[in-house]
Design a protein that fits this description.
Blueprint: H1 10-16, H2 29-37, E1 39-43, H3 47-51, H4 72-82, E2 86-92, H5 121-131, E3 135-140, H6 153-169, E4 176-179, H7 196-206, E5 211-214, E6 220-221, E7 236-239, E8 242-245, E9 248-253, H8 271-281, E10 287-291, H9 302-320, E11 328-331, E12 362-381, E13 389-397, E14 402-408, E15 415-434, E16 440-446
Parallel strand pairs: 1-2, 1-10, 2-3, 3-4, 4-5, 6-9, 9-10
Antiparallel strand pairs: 7-8, 11-12, 12-15, 12-16, 13-14, 13-15
């Protein structure tokens, strides 16, 4: 193998491992890019914003929709400062009200007084996001409480696919299409049966690079709405009789509700709560999807803006100091050049340390130069090669012996392992078991200002 492979582009790194082992699931290019976002957002906005409800009935008067100071650029600027890489807009919620001037229904912004009936929320949001270089996601509820054909499965499925066509042909590139599984009875008293394969085929036809989330094959729901992944959450799951790459998305709202309610202005989650959620989502190999509901003005509310500013600063501050970055690094063995283990601290996800050829275990020791105090270990794999590690631990030298401070089974895109504050000069990452030659991209040591409960 090429002795300089760890300094080459990711495509070359991946090619050197081709077929090792052949059955190991790996992400496609879009999944890989999406997982590296780590922190994305939801914007629940619609007729419910103006009726002060969470779930509309579908009988609302479209004239109720009338934001007084709609400013999509304000949304995008707030998201950008917080470090959010993608926004998913609720183009249509369960009430069936469409934030674009749909030709398929009267229950849409065309029949509202906003912009004299000539407005298009989707257009303004998409344009603002692109100006701030934030990717675009669209949520289209399959449940539609306004649509008369709902419950007549063939007719409604055709209607729904046509709505998809409107959204996926008129607004440029879409990076994520979000379907939930909400389902109810139609006006005929019959349960709607969704034709998911046809929906997926429509997305693939119109937006072949878009990831289909939740009720979809590319991204899965973590299983709760608290933003918390399981410990050792894996991106590899059993599906269709085999293993597949199907990473988890952790959704949670910054407020108690998903839509804006003025009564909840004092209930925005604290910075400490958001920090804990971050460690339990991003820090557990998942993507955090934080809902930020715009208010009746059509702007992100002031309490939310302030908290997001703090949260973005917290995330940047967490990584600003990395005690491992300048450490002297020594590996038990390595494949490649003598500098191979240094790739663990070069700040890049397309370089890696791996033990000597044929080995699936090994360790790397970090001499920090002097005693340092930290309570977070950051570990990242080259996930383009799959999740290879099956067991690992981190030790600290206490002056007499190595003492274990954290351990786990899955690494994946990122693990942020929290533990009580530890002061030491020497730290060791140990790979105890792996399905194939481990490829560790990064290792860092950080100090979290909040409580360090695991």
């Amino acid at each position: 193998m090429c002795s300089t492979r760890w300094l080459l582009p990711l495509a070359v790194v991946v090619s050197t491992f081709a077929g090792e082992p052949a059955a190991l699931p790996v992400p496609n290019a879009q999944q890989l890019a999406w997982q590296r976002h780590e922190f994305i957002a939801f914007a629940h906005f619609g007729i419910n914003t103006f009726t002060d409800r969470e779930w509309g009935e579908g009988t609302e008067d479209p004239r109720l929709f009338n934001p007084t100071d709609f400013d999509a650029l304000q949304w995008a600027a707030v998201l950008q400062e917080a470090g959010i890489k993608l926004l998913i807009l609720t183009a249509k919620h369960h009430d069936g009200f469409c934030l674009w001037p749909s030709k398929l229904t009267e229950h849409c912004v065309r029949n509202s007084p906003w912009r004299d009936g000539k407005g298009d929320v989707v257009r303004e949001v998409v344009d603002a996001l692109r100006e701030k270089r934030i990717q675009v996601g669209l949520y289209l509820s399959p449940w539609d409480r306004n649509q008369p054909t709902y419950g007549d499965s063939p007719r409604y499925n055709e209607f729904f696919r046509n709505q998809l066509r409107e959204l996926l042909t008129n607004y440029g590139a879409v990076d994520e299409v979000w379907f939930d599984g909400a389902c109810g009875e139609g006006p005929n008293g019959k349960q709607q049966v969704y034709d998911w394969p046809a929906c997926y085929a429509t997305v693939r036809e119109l937006q072949p690079r878009a990831l289909i989330a939740i009720c979809g094959p590319d991204i899965r729901w973590v299983g709760n709405e608290s933003g918390v992944a399981r410990e050792n959450e894996s991106s590899v799951v059993e599906r269709d009789g085999g293993l597949a790459w199907h990473p988890a998305e952790c959704d949670v709202s910054i407020r108690p509700g998903w839509f804006y309610h003025a009564s909840q202005d004092a209930q925005v989650k604290s910075l400490a709560t958001l920090a804990d959620i971050y460690f339990k989502s991003v820090g557990r190999n998942s993507v955090l999807l934080l809902n930020i509901p715009p208010d009746r003005r059509g702007r992100i509310a002031d309490p939310d803006v302030a908290r997001l500013k703090e949260f973005g600063a917290f995330i940047r501050g967490l990584y600003a100091t990395d005690f491992a970055r300048t450490a002297t690094v020594k590996a038990s063995s390595q494949h490649g050049p003598a500098a191979g283990a240094r790739q663990l601290t070069d700040g890049r996800l397309d370089t890696a340390w791996t033990p000597a050829e044929g080995q699936t275990t090994g360790s790397v020791e970090f001499d920090l130069g002097q005693a340092r105090t930290f309570n977070v270990a950051r570990i990242q794999e080259v996930i383009a090669l799959g999740e290879r590690v099956r067991a690992y631990h981190v030790d600290a030298w206490d002056g007499d012996e190595w003492r274990r401070i954290t351990d786990g089974k899955v690494i994946g895109q990122k693990q942020l392992c929290r533990f009580p504050e530890t002061t030491t000069q020497r730290v060791r990452l140990v790979i105890d078991d792996a399905a194939a030659a481990p490829a560790i991209a990064e290792f860092g040591l950080h100090l979290n200002a909040f409580a360090s409960a695991r």
